């Protein structure tokens, strides 16, 4: 029998984890809807029902520390917007595998000694309902390792990075057969480059504009952007962001979207440039150029808080396999793509019990 709260484990205690943990504390006592969340109460679950029960990382400065302290350790640079009390959750060493690119070993302060950690055992002992994957982009093997450990532990998997698990039919089937939900892939932001790009594309298509070409360029200074300097780790990220835009254009157009530069002094500030070119009435041209600047890590934390509670509802109801409604709403590369306003409607139906998943 599952507990009453939403018991969450984290793989990768980086900036996004910092924003999530801080956000839960920041809004713990609110009774009203807040910016970035669909609802303060998502079904019966309030923000304060989220409890962190386990965490894994490869950074020797974070390992062994309480999660409340580890989220502020270097190289994390997420804005500090909440004072987090001691959580009683010690960060455990996770397997390195391909979770650290060669050029990131110093930045991540990676531990050197051999470590053999029973992740599935820790998840079971902690009573985790779900594990959130916050590993660096390009962590192909490491992501699949944690997914396997979730299957062993009887734990749901929430995949926030562009390694395709929820949207992979083979993995989706394995979670369904195990009786566990899975949500993903690649978390969207509250007001980020992809969601704004999608909104503009959706508007232009609905107004009859023929889109010819569009690009989205992103630069930032946190470890996410530093990690993606290694081009081999960019492939799935670019595929995820490009696909999120292309899915809204009902014909062939030239689309380019993805990270395009690391500028260290920007730290957790992300700057995005979007350009759209098309043709309107009389075959006359229309062009849009837009610049967006945001604090990167807090941008997805509220979206994820909704995902965690949706996943808990699925566990309560015995729903297994890919959660198509919350995935379409909250992720760039979900099992089923849908316009954002339609996906939000699906989530409301799911909360009300009118939609299975």
List the helices and strands and how they pair.
Elements: E1 6-11, H1 15-26, E2 41-42, E3 45-46, E4 50-57, H2 67-70, E5 91-93, H3 119-126, E6 130-133, H4 140-153, E7 156-159, H5 169-178, E8 181-183, H6 193-206, E9 210-220, H7 223-227, H8 235-246, E10 254-262, E11 269-280, E12 284-295, H9 298-317, E13 321-322, H10 324-330, H11 340-352
Parallel strand pairs: 1-4, 1-6, 4-5, 6-7, 7-8, 8-13, 9-10
Antiparallel strand pairs: 2-3, 9-11, 11-12
Write up what this structure looks like.
The structure is a single chain. By secondary structure, the protein is of the alpha/beta class. Helix content is 33%, strand content 22%. It contains eleven helices and 13 strands. α4 links the parallel β6 and β7 (156-159). It is globular, with a radius of gyration of 20 Å.
């Amino acid at each position: 029998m599952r507990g009453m709260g939403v018991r969450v484990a984290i793989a990768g205690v980086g900036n996004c984890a910092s924003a999530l943990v801080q956000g839960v504390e920041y809004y713990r006592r609110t009774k009203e809807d807040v910016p970035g969340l669909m609802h303060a109460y998502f079904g019966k679950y309030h923000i304060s029902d989220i409890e962190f029960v386990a965490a894994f990382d490869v950074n020797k400065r974070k390992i062994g520390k309480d999660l409340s302290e580890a989220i502020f350790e270097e190289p994390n640079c997420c804005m500090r917007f909440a004072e987090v009390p001691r959580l009683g959750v010690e960060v455990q060493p996770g397997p390195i595998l391909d979770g650290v690119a060669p050029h990131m070993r110093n930045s991540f302060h990676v531990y050197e000694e051999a470590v053999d950690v029973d992740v599935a055992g820790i998840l079971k002992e902690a009573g985790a309902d779900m594990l959130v994957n916050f590993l660096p982009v390009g962590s192909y093997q490491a992501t699949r390792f944690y997914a396997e450990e979730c299957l062993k532990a009887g734990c749901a998997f929430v995949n926030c990075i562009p390694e395709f698990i929820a949207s992979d039919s083979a993995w989706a089937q394995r979670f369904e057969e195990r009786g566990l939900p899975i949500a993903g892939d690649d978390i969207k932001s509250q007001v980020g480059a992809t969601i704004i790009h999608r909104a503009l594309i959706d508007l232009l298509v609905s107004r009859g504009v023929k889109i010819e070409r569009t690009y989205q360029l992103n630069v930032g200074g946190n470890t996410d952007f530093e990690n993606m300097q290694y081009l081999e780790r960019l492939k799935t990220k670019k595929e995820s962001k490009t696909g999120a835009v292309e899915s809204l254009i009902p014909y062939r157009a030239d689309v380019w979207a993805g990270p395009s530069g690391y500028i260290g002094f920007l730290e957790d500030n992300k700057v995005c440039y979007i350009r759209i070119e098309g043709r309107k009435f009389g075959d006359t041209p229309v062009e849009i150029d837009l610049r967006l600047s945001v604090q990167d890590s807090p941008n997805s934390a509220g979206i994820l808080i909704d995902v965690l509670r949706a996943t808990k509802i699925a566990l309560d109801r015995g729903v297994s396999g890919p959660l198509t409604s919350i995935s379409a709403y909250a992720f760039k590369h979900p099992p089923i793509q849908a316009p954002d306003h339609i996906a939000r409607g699906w989530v409301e139906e799911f909360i009300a019990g009118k939609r299975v998943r």
